[in-house]
Design a protein that fits this description.
The complex is a heterodimer of chains A (344) and B (811).
Chain A (H helix, E strand, L loop, with lengths): L4 H21 L3 H12 L6 H7 L8 H29 L22 H15 L3 E2 L5 E2 L1 H4 L25 E2 L5 H9 L4 E10 L11 E11 L4 H16 L4 E5 L5 E10 L16 E10 L1 H6 L8 E7 L1 H9 L5 H5 L2 H4 L5
Parallel strand pairs in A: 1-4
Antiparallel strand pairs in A: 2-3, 4-5, 5-9, 6-7, 7-8, 8-9
Chain B lengths: L1 E3 H7 L6 H11 L3 E6 L8 E10 L7 E6 L6 E5 L9 E6 L13 E3 L2 E3 L1 E3 L27 H4 L5 E5 L11 H12 L19 E3 L2 E4 L2 E5 L7 E8 L8 H9 L7 H13 L4 E4 L7 E6 L5 E3 L5 E3 L5 E4 L4 E4 L3 E2 L12 E7 L2 H11 L4 H8 L6 H16 L2 E2 L4 E3 L8 E5 H8 L5 H9 L4 E2 L6 E5 L10 H12 L20 H15 L3 E2 L5 E2 L7 E2 L10 E2 L3 H14 L5 E11 L7 E11 L17 H16 L4 E8 L2 E7 L2 E9 L10 E11 L35 E10 L4 H12 L3 E10 L8 E10 L8 H19 L2 E2 L3
Parallel strand pairs in B: 11-24, 13-16, 28-32
Antiparallel strand pairs in B: 1-10, 2-10, 3-4, 3-6, 4-5, 6-9, 7-8, 12-13, 14-22, 14-23, 14-24, 15-22, 16-19, 17-18, 19-20, 20-21, 25-27, 26-27, 29-31, 30-31, 32-33, 33-37, 34-35, 35-36, 36-37, 38-40, 38-41, 39-40
Helix pairs in contact in B: 1-4, 2-4, 5-6, 6-9, 7-8, 10-12, 13-15, 16-17
The chains are: A alpha+beta (344), B alpha+beta (811).
C-alpha cells in the first residue's frame, strides 16, 4: 500500500473533525462511549487504521506524521473525557444504582486464636530481648525427663500421664526439652522463648486436651536472679493483660528451685473473688522458677558460674480467657463459624 | 490434702479467718483449691430481730411477732418459744428455707395467724440438743446478715493442693508448723481428754524383738527401714466418741470404729499412717516384715484378692501376708467387733518401694500417698505413744509390754552448707544472715552460726525434699515471701541464640495463608493409621487414635468434614504442624508441614452474581503456587503435572518434590462441592541429640544475614510490543510443553507469555483444542519494529510445527 503523507494528514484531520462534532452532539454518556469505541478502539475506521500506515511512509516523513497522530489522539482522548464528565455531571443521579446494596467481598483469612495469643506473647518477649527456639515433638526420654531433673520414678513418667512411642521415645510433655537443646547448642547469655505443641495422656474434656500449645522461656547468664525473673514476668503480665497486679507464690517443678507460680488479679471480679477465680481474686497464669543446677549441669554448663530462670505457660487456656471461649474443645473443632470470628 | 480449720486451731493459735488462712497457706506453702463450709445447710439462715411480740389471740402458748429480717418490710412470724423478747436477735429461717434434717419451711397459717418463717432453736439448726427455747444471738450485726457470719458454727474444710515435694504438709501438724512460723507461735499437739495413760518407753532393736505377746521380725530393712509396734490388750471395739467422728468428718473421712478411727486420726493429725491388726488372728503370734513370696496372694481390706510378687514388701504372720506394706491391710487380721487384743503398727516404708507396689496393684490409699512422698521417720515414737494413749482413751484396754522399735540403720539428719552470698546471688537481693537463720529456724531447720558468710544447716527429718543449698534458698525466699522481692527490671545482655529458621518460615507461610483468605485450623495428630505406614503409640488412649498422622491432610480432612456436618458449605482451612514418618530405628522422622483445604464458593456470593463460582482445580493450583512461594523463600517453584489418582500436581521447590495438590475425597453430604487439598513440607525437624548428657556442642552464635527474596528491576525505558497466536494443540499434548517450545523459539526478547483462552468446538478438528497465547516482546534499548516481532512469531510457529506438529489456527 502506498500512501502519501498528505493523504494521511487529510484523513486524520477528517477523523478529528467528525468525532469532535459527534461528541458535541452527544446527549448521553452511552453516546460518548460509542464514539470512544469507534475512534480509539481497535475497530476499523478509527485511529488504529492510521497507526498501521506509519510503516508504509518513507522514513523521512514518519516523525512528522507520528507527531500529528499523537496530537490528534490526545485531543480526542481529552475531548471524550471532558464530554463524558459533562454529561455525567449534568445527568440526573441514576436511580437504578442503590448504593445501599451490599459490597462485593473477599474471603478473609484468620490465624487460630491460640496462634494470636502466641504471637502476642512472642512480640512482648522479643521486645525484652528474647529470640524464638524450636524443637521436635517426638522426643528422647532424656531430653523430656532425665535432663530436667526428674527422678527416675517420678509420677509424671507414668504410662498414665505420658504418651510413649512404640519404638522408643515419647511425645514431649512440655516444651522444656528445648531448654536443654538450646543450652547444649549456644553459649550464654541466652534468652529464648520456645512455643510448641505438647502432649499429655489426658482425656479430652472442657478443660483438658491430649495435645495443647505451650510456650517456654529461659534466660541464662552470669548473675541472673529471682528478681530478674519476677521483673520480666511482671512486665510481661502488665503488657499482655494491661496494668495488673501480679502475685508470685511457691510451687514445685523438678527443674526449678526456687519454683513459683505467677497469678494475676482476676479480670472478671477485679480481685474481689468470683466463681472464675474460685473466690481467691487471682488467676494462675504461669509456672516459673530459677533453673535447677542439675539442669544446667545436664546441658554441660558450669552451674557455679551461670544461673538461669525459666517459665512455661499455656496459650490455649489464655485464649479461652482472652476471648471468652467457654470450652477448650471449641479450639480444636476448627469450625468455620468460630475461626471467622478471628478474621482480620 | 483436706485440712480442718478447727483442727488446725487446736494445734496452733491464730486469729485468721478461713479466707485469711487460705491466702497465707497459698502465699507461703502451696495453693488452696477450695474452702468448704461444712455447715452450708445453714447458709440461708439469717439474723432476725424481733420488733414486736404479742400473745396469739387463739392460743395460750404461742406468740405473734413481727421480725426484721433485713427485708423492706417486717414479717409476721408465729413463735412458740417462751423466751422470745422484743429487740433480741435470733436465727431466722424464712419460708422457703430447708432446715438441717430436711424440714422445708412454708408460709402457713397457725390458728389463723400467718407465719412467714421460723425463729430457730439450736437443735433445729443442728447445733446441739438445746430445745428449751430459741437461740438468742449476742451480735451487733444488722438483721439480714447471714447467720454463719454472726456465729462461728461449723468447721471449714481447707482443700490444699500439696505439691509432691512437701510430704510434711500432708498433716495438720505440718500445716500448723507453717502457720506457727508466720505468727511466731508454736505448733503443739493438744492434750486429749482421757488420753493420759502412761506408755512404756520404746525398746530399740535392729531386726527382732517382741511387744506383749507378739514377736516381731524385720527381714526387709530396705523396704522397711523402721518398724515399730505396740500390743494393746482387751480393747472394746465400738463407736467413736462424737469429737473423733466430727474431726474425721471434717476432713471427709468416714468413721469405722474407735480403733480404726484412731489410726485415721493420727494419719491426718501427724501424717503417720498406722495399721491395727487383730492380734488373735496373727498366726503364730508373729509379725514378719519381709518380701512377698512368688505366687503369694492376699485379700486386702477392700475384699479384693491380690497377687503379690517378690518386689513387694508385706507384713506377714508366721505363715501368710497380712498387709501390703504401706498400702493396705489384709482382711484376715482385720479389726472387727469381736477383736479383743490389737497390735498397732507404726512404720516407715521406703517411698520408691511403696510407689512401685501401689502402681503394680493399682491401689492408692491415704497411707500409700504419704509413704510414697516420705513421712517423718523420727516422728514414729511420738506418734506411736500418742496413738496408744488415744486407743486406751476411746476403746479402753491396757498396754501390754513395752512397744518394740526395729530401726537397724538410723538415718542421720542431713546437714547442708549455705553461703549467704549464694542466697543473694540467686535471689537478686541480699538477705541478712540473722534473717536467714530466723527464717529457717521458724520451720524447724537448725542453723549454725555464720562464719565468713557460711553456715551449716541441719534439715528437719520431716523435710526429705531439702537436699541441696538451692532447696534452702527456696525456703528462705518463700518464708520471707516471694512478694517481698523487688520486681525491678534490670539491665540484661541480649541472648546469642539466633531465631529458629523453622519459626521464621512457619510465620511467613502462616501469613501467606491468612492473606489468601484461609482460616487456621488446629487438629490433634492422632489417627486410625496402619502398622506399616504410621508411627504407633505404645500406650494410646483409644485404638482409633493409636497412630500419629503421616500427613496433615489426614487430620485436616476430618476438620473439613466436621464443618460439612455443621452445614458449612464454603470450607477454607489451613494448618501448620508436624507429621511423623516411621523410621527404622529411633525416633520417627518428623516434618513441619503446611496443608490447606478449599471447597465451596470461590468468593462470598454476591447479589450481582446469583450463581457464584466454586473453587476448582485452577484455584487449587494457584493456591499451591502461592503457598509454595512462601515456603520456597525465593527458590524456583514448579508445579509438575501428576494426573495420578487424586494427585493433580506435584509441587517442586528448587527441583525437589516437596508436596502435592490433589482432589480430596471426603465423607461429604451430596450438596458439598468438590474439595481440593494442598500439602507441603516446610522442613525436617531434627530430633537428633545435640550432645551426650552433661556435654554441649556449641554452634556459632552469629545471626546469619537473611538473603532477600526481593530485588528491584529497573523500569523499562522502551515500549513493549505484543503479538497473539492461536494454535491447534492436540488434546494429549501438554500446554506446558507447547509453552516451553514457544519460549525457546522466541529468544531472549520475550518478556512474557500469557495464555489467553482455550477453545474447543465448532471449527476445531476432533482431538484438538485451540489455545491462544499473547507473546510480549521488549528490547531493553530500542523500540522493536513490527517486522521484528512478526519475524519472531513466524519462527515460533515454524518451530512448533516442526517440533510438535502444532499448527496455527486459521479459522
Amino acid at each position: 500500500m502506498s500512501t502519501s503523507l498528505d493523504d494521511l494528514r487529510t484523513g486524520l484531520e477528517e477523523l478529528r473533525r467528525a468525532n469532535l462534532e459527534a461528541l458535541a452532539k452527544a446527549r448521553s454518556v452511552d453516546e460518548v462511549e460509542q464514539t470512544r469505541i469507534a475512534t480509539l478502539g481497535r475497530a476499523r475506521g478509527g485511529l488504529n487504521d492510521y497507526k498501521a500506515h506509519i510503516t508504509a511512509l518513507p522514513p523521512a516523513d514518519r516523525p512528522a506524521f507520528g507527531a500529528l497522530f499523537n496530537t490528534v489522539k490526545q485531543e480526542l482522548e481529552q475531548a471524550i473525557a471532558s464530554r463524558h464528565a459533562e454529561l455525567s455531571a449534568s445527568a440526573p443521579a441514576p436511580a437504578a444504582v442503590d448504593l445501599s446494596m451490599p459490597a462485593r467481598r473477599q474471603w478473609r483469612g484468620a490465624r487460630h486464636p491460640v496462634t494470636i495469643v502466641l504471637a502476642e506473647i512472642e512480640a512482648i518477649f522479643r521486645d525484652l530481648g528474647f529470640t524464638v527456639a524450636t524443637g521436635p515433638e517426638a522426643e528422647h526420654e532424656w531430653y523430656n525427663f532425665g535432663a530436667l531433673n526428674f527422678p527416675p520414678d517420678h509420677p509424671a513418667m507414668d504410662m498414665h500421664d505420658t504418651l510413649y512411642l512404640e519404638r522408643g521415645g515419647l511425645l514431649r510433655t512440655h516444651t522444656s526439652p528445648v531448654q536443654i537443646r538450646t543450652l547444649q547448642s549456644y553459649p550464654p547469655p541466652i534468652r529464648i522463648i520456645a512455643p510448641g505443641n505438647v502432649f499429655r495422656r489426658d482425656f479430652f474434656d472442657a478443660s483438658h486436651a491430649p495435645m495443647f500449645a505451650q510456650i517456654e522461656g529461659m534466660a541464662v547468664d552470669e548473675g541472673v536472679s529471682f528478681v530478674d525473673l519476677k521483673a520480666t514476668l511482671a512486665n510481661f503480665a502488665n503488657r499482655f493483660f494491661g496494668e495488673t497486679k501480679t502475685r508470685f507464690r511457691p510451687s514445685f517443678f523438678p527443674f526449678t528451685e526456687p519454683s513459683a507460680e505467677m497469678d494475676v488479679a482476676c479480670r472478671i471480679c477485679n480481685g474481689t473473688g468470683c466463681a472464675t477465680c474460685k473466690q481467691t481474686g487471682w488467676v494462675e497464669i504461669l509456672g516459673c522458677g530459677m533453673m535447677h543446677p542439675s539442669v544446667l549441669e545436664a546441658a554441660g554448663l558450669d552451674a557455679q558460674r551461670y544461673t538461669g530462670w525459666a517459665f512455661g505457660m499455656g496459650p490455649g487456656r489464655m485464649a479461652l480467657q482472652r476471648f471468652g471461649i467457654p470450652d477448650i474443645r471449641i479450639e480444636y473443632d476448627s469450625d468455620i463459624s468460630f475461626l471467622e470470628q478471628f478474621a482480620q | 490434702m483436706n485440712a480442718s480449720y478447727e483442727w488446725l486451731r487446736a494445734i496452733v493459735s491464730f486469729d485468721y479467718t478461713p479466707e485469711q488462712l487460705r491466702d497465707l497457706i497459698t502465699a507461703r506453702c502451696c495453693p488452696v483449691d477450695e474452702l468448704v463450709r461444712l455447715r452450708a445447710d445453714l447458709a440461708s439462715v439469717v439474723v432476725g430481730q424481733v420488733i414486736e411480740a404479742g400473745p396469739h389471740p387463739d392460743s395460750d402458748h404461742l406468740w405473734v411477732t413481727r421480725v426484721d429480717a433485713g427485708k423492706n418490710e417486717l414479717l409476721d412470724v408465729v413463735c412458740g418459744a417462751p423466751n422470745v423478747k422484743v429487740g433480741a436477735k435470733y436465727p431466722f429461717a424464712a419460708a422457703g428455707t430447708t432446715l438441717p434434717g430436711g424440714l422445708k419451711l412454708e408460709k402457713r397459717k397457725i390458728r389463723g395467724a400467718t407465719s412467714n418463717g421460723m425463729l430457730c432453736s439450736a437443735r433445729e439448726l443442728g447445733l446441739g440438743t438445746d430445745h428449751e427455747g430459741i437461740l438468742e444471738l449476742d451480735t451487733t450485726l444488722p438483721p439480714g446478715t447471714p447467720f454463719l457470719e454472726a456465729v462461728s458454727a461449723g468447721d471449714t474444710r481447707i482443700i490444699i493442693d500439696v505439691t509432691p515435694n512437701r510430704p510434711d504438709l500432708l498433716s495438720h501438724l505440718g500445716i500448723a508448723r507453717e502457720i506457727a512460723a508466720a505468727t511466731g507461735g508454736r505448733a503443739e499437739l493438744p492434750a486429749l481428754d482421757g488420753a493420759n495413760v502412761s506408755v512404756p518407753a520404746l525398746v530399740r532393736a535392729t531386726n527382732e524383738g517382741a511387744s506383749g505377746g507378739i514377736r516381731v521380725k524385720l527381714e526387709d530393712p530396705e523396704g522397711c527401714p523402721r518398724y515399730a509396734g505396740i500390743f494393746v490388750r482387751a480393747v472394746a471395739i465400738g463407736p467413736s466418741p462424737a469429737w473423733l467422728v466430727e474431726r474425721l468428718a471434717a476432713v471427709g473421712s468416714r468413721s469405722i470404729n474407735n480403733v480404726v478411727d484412731v489410726t485415721n486420726y493420727m494419719l491426718h493429725e501427724a501424717g503417720q499412717p498406722m495399721h491395727a491388726f487383730d492380734a488373735a488372728l496373727l498366726g503364730g503370734s508373729a509379725i514378719v516384715v519381709r518380701r512377698a513370696r512368688a505366687g503369694e496372694t492376699i485379700r486386702t481390706l477392700d475384699g479384693v484378692d491380690r497377687k503379690l510378687d517378690p518386689s513387694m514388701t508385706v507384713i506377714a504372720d508366721a505363715s501368710s501376708a497380712q498387709a501390703v506394706a504401706g498400702v493396705m491391710g489384709g482382711s484376715t487380721s482385720e479389726v472387727s467387733d469381736a477383736t479383743r487384743d490389737i497390735f498397732l503398727e507404726v512404720a516407715y516404708f521406703d517411698p520408691a518401694s511403696v510407689r512401685r507396689t501401689r502402681r503394680a496393684l493399682q491401689l492408692g490409699t491415704d497411707a500409700s500417698y504419704r509413704y510414697e512422698r516420705g513421712i517423718d521417720i523420727e516422728g514414729i515414737p511420738r506418734a506411736l505413744e500418742r496413738a496408744a494413749r488415744l486407743i486406751v482413751a476411746v476403746a479402753g484396754g491396757r498396754i501390754d509390754g513395752a512397744p518394740i522399735d526395729l530401726y537397724p540403720v538410723p538415718k542421720p539428719a542431713p546437714s547442708i552448707p549455705l553461703a549467704s552470698a549464694h542466697v543473694a546471688r540467686l535471689l537478686g537481693e541480699p538477705v541478712s544472715e540473722p534473717e536467714i537463720a530466723t527464717l529457717l529456724a521458724s520451720v524447724g531447720f537448725t542453723v549454725s552460726a555464720f562464719a565468713n558468710g557460711r553456715a551449716s544447716v541441719t534439715v528437719p527429718t520431716w523435710r526429705p525434699d531439702v537436699t541441696r543449698n538451692v532447696d534452702l534458698i527456696e525456703e528462705i525466699a518463700r518464708l520471707r515471701g516471694y512478694d517481698s522481692f523487688s520486681a525491678e527490671l534490670r539491665p540484661f545482655r541480649r541472648g546469642t541464640v539466633p531465631d529458629s529458621p523453622l519459626a521464621i518460615l512457619s510465620a511467613r507461610v502462616r501469613e501467606a495463608c491468612v492473606r489468601a483468605g484461609l482460616l487456621e485450623a488446629l487438629s490433634m495428630p492422632f489417627v486410625r493409621g496402619g502398622e506399616s505406614t504410621h508411627v504407633r503409640l505404645a500406650n494410646p488412649m483409644a485404638e482409633h487414635e493409636a497412630y500419629l498422622r503421616r500427613d496433615l491432610l489426614e487430620t485436616l480432612a476430618r476438620r473439613a468434614e466436621h464443618n460439612l456436618a455443621q452445614r458449612h458449605r464454603d470450607v477454607r482451612l489451613f494448618e501448620i504442624g508436624s507429621a511423623f514418618q516411621p523410621s527404622l530405628s529411633g525416633l520417627p522422622r518428623e516434618e513441619m508441614r503446611v496443608a490447606a483445604i478449599v471447597m465451596g464458593h470461590r468468593h462470598p456470593p454476591h447479589w450481582t452474581e446469583p450463581a457464584a463460582p466454586d473453587f476448582d482445580e485452577w484455584d487449587a493450583k494457584g493456591l499451591a503456587e502461592l503457598i509454595a512461594s512462601a515456603v520456597a523463600s525465593g527458590a524456583a517453584v514448579e508445579l509438575l503435572d501428576a494426573g495420578e489418582g487424586d494427585v493433580l500436581w506435584w509441587i517442586a521447590i528448587a527441583g525437589d518434590v516437596r508436596g502435592s495438590a490433589r482432589r480430596l475425597a471426603l465423607d461429604a453430604p451430596v450438596w458439598a462441592s468438590a474439595a481440593f487439598g494442598i500439602e507441603l513440607t516446610l522442613a525436617h525437624v531434627s530430633s537428633e541429640p545435640v550432645a551426650p548428657p552433661g556435654e554441649s556442642k556449641l554452634q556459632s552464635a552469629s545471626h546469619a544475614a537473611q538473603p532477600s527474596r526481593f530485588g528491584f528491576r529497573p523500569f523499562p525505558s522502551t515500549p513493549s510490543t505484543f503479538v497473539d497466536v492461536a494454535l491447534l494443540v492436540p488434546n494429549d499434548l501438554a500446554a506446558s510443553r507447547v509453552e516451553r517450545s514457544i519460549r525457546d523459539a522466541s529468544g531472549e526478547l520475550l518478556e512474557s507469555l500469557a495464555m489467553l483462552s482455550e477453545y474447543r468446538g465448532t471449527g476445531i478438528p476432533e482431538g484438538f483444542r485451540s489455545i491462544a497465547w499473547r507473546l510480549t516482546f521488549r528490547h531493553p534499548e530500542r523500540t522493536l519494529r513490527d517486522k521484528e516481532v512478526a519475524g519472531r512469531r513466524d519462527k515460533v510457529v515454524r518451530t512448533l510445527e516442526g517440533e510438535l506438529g502444532v499448527r496455527q489456527r486459521t479459522t
